[in-house]
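ok so i was messing around last nite and threw this chain in just to see what happens. nothing serious, just curious
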Amino acid sequence: MTPAEPAAVGGPGPSEGPAPPPDRRRRRRSIVLLVLATLTLIATIGAPRHGIPSSLVVVVASAAAGLFALVEQRRPQLGIRPVAAAVAVVLLAAVVIGPQSSNDVWSYTMYGRMVSVHDASPYDHVPADFPHDPFDRRVSAIWQHRGSVYGPAFVAYATTLTFLAGDSVLVDRLLFQLGAALVVIAALVLVWRRTRSPAAVAWLGLQPVFGAIVVNNGQIDSFIGLAILVAVVLVLQRRSTAAGVALAAASLVKITSLLALPGIVFWAWRHQERRLAVRTAAVTAALTGVVYLPFLAGQTHVLSGADHMVTPGSAWNLPAQLLVGKDAGRDLAARVLPNSTLGVLFDLSLVLTVVLAVWLAWRWAVERGPEQATGASTASYAIAAEYTLPWYAAWAMPVVATRRPSSLAWVIWIQGALLLAAWRLPTHHTGSVADTVLRGTLAYALPIVLLVAYVAVRPSRDATAGAGPAAPVAVDGAR
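result:
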């Protein structure tokens, strides 16, 4: 009986079967990454509002989603169906689990009920004015004495939903979250039609901030992201009036959405589409001004009385900590009292936000399409503002979700994820080594690094298109 021949170096052993083909191994790896991204994202949704484990879960979910998107982008192995199924599971979990990181949905409800139930203006009244309303006790204490900071379009939307929901807490919550889920799905469908890339859909739909967290907490921001994306698509089709209407709709949800306008206008101007630029800007300004005019006094009063607080993960955390202390002013005994230093930082942050929006919109306007210029100007608030929340990244992410995300897109993507991780840290210092390291990294150091990266990244040479007019682009991206 002759002995078995030794196996070749690197080959299968005597008891092993043949090695799977390379494409099968890559497909298995993609499936594993997709499952990991889905499960960790669901864990992110259900995790407690604040805590070191919650923050770490966000980091893991972000890494898994980003790695999957990169792998699929470079070597596509999966079609749209498994990616769509994963996103659907995440959105379903977000709706079923309910709000975990924010009570904003109850503020939306009270602002809507002020109109639909109490026949009062949410710009002239605050939730505390209606102590016998069954939803009032659900509003966070810090917002009990704040009128609506949202535009009239969203107040009208909230009024409609609260009228339909009546006094049912469950129906009210589901209407708001299902509405947000439909908006997220619409944005993902539009990204798919423009890119035909499962990786682009995963890049957006499995990002911890977009979709799950937006549906779960920051519904308003999904509306803004979709409206800005629609405006860009309409600009590419040379439909300036419709694009202006879309941008005005976004601004009537939050006035800060107007930061998207420089990106579109500068792109059209630099590509010799000056009539398109002027018409889009004129329609946006006219509609925004006309609709806001009746509410201007009330909303101006509300916004002028807002807290000048530095949120966790803001690039202004370190200056605020050095100048004010008290965890960048968040541990002050009465945050609602005026603080001159935080007020100055707030003003400086607004100036920086506007300057960056205009400057970077002009820089990125050299690209073939307006997506990057619009994303650059829109993201300036999330990255450079003193008061910024994780879901603000959802304003810009849909418009920069392309077949091959740019360096700018990745900065916006990473900043949103890390802002969420910083937001999930314990509210107060625990004194542990883990808390000190994570807080110093996520809340103080990385926000400044990402702000620098946001300013430093530039369009690649092969992405620019000279000064000639750009050809119209259909919805699916075919020129």
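not much to say yet. Residues 26-126+141-459 form one domain.
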